[in-house]
Amino acid sequence: MQKRHRIFIAINLPEDIKRGLSEYQEKWPELPAKWTAKDNLHITLEFLGDLTDEELGNVCKAVGKVTLRHKIFSVNLNKILYGPPKKMPPCMVWAEGEKSDDLTDLREDIQECLLQEIRYRPEGRGFTPHITLARIREWEFRKIEPEERPEIEENIDLTFTVESIDVMESELKRGGPVYSIIESHNLA
User: Fold this and answer.
1) Contact partners, residue 69, CB within 8 Å, separation at least 6
2) SS in 3 state form for 50-113?
3) Which neighbouring-strand residues pair with 136?
4) What values do phi and psi take at 83, rounded to 5?
5) 122: exposed, middle or buried (C-beta count within 10 Å: 0-12, 13-18, 19+)?
6) Confidence band of 125 (pLDDT split at 50, 70, 90)
7) Nearest to 133 by CA among 77, 86, 74
8) pLDDT at 108
9) Is the C-alpha dihedral spanning 11, 88, 49, 34 positive or negative?
10) Which of 9, 52, 180, 186 is 20 to 30 Å from 171 at the Cα level?
11) Is 62 exposed, middle or buried (0-12, 13-18, 19+ CB in 10 A)?
12) Half-sphere exposure of 136 toward its Cβ, with a 13 Å CA cutoff?
């Protein structure tokens, strides 16, 4: 049987942004959640799931083509809140970014190019750039009286430059997922 790879396309964060975001883990110690390791913080542009070696090669080529058509741009992270918005109980705590034409165009271009290269089903919901800071243990969260649940909605102002897009592999290990960069592609 052919080995399959759990693949996603991501924007990895500069070290100072990762450090700044990971400091929020201390702020809500009573929250029943599994906090994301600092080195795993990223923005997922597209989750592709399990791919063969051949499909992975096609993905890397497609992402390489797309990045040549897009210039370097900035992302501004402006809020930490429960996510997805309006879902109760929430699934995550995340840092949300402002929507931008540059980011939306890049993501749409990646989806279109990937649809020509591999068989996958893009997520049909709208895209909100976000970084998952924690995954909430829903069953524990439900046990907390609603008025005693931590209020999480904090304005932040963290801006960074996106210079490259990465094809990433996620290996599920006993201690949590381990992410590795398969290929990195610089923007034009």
Assistant:
1) 109, 188
2) EECHHHHHHHHHHHHHHHCCCCCEEEEEEEEEEECCCCCCCCEEEEEECCCHHHHHHHHHHHHH
3) 33
4) -140, 160
5) middle
6) low
7) 77
8) 93
9) positive
10) 186
11) buried
12) 25
Token reading at 87: 């879902």
Enclosing H/E stretch for 48: strand 42-51
**Domains of the chain, with CATH numbers?**
5-186 (3.90.1140.10)
Cβ count within 10 A of residue 129? 21
Task: Give the tens place of pLDDT for each residue, 60-71.
Answer: 999 999 999 999
Model pTM above 0.85: yes
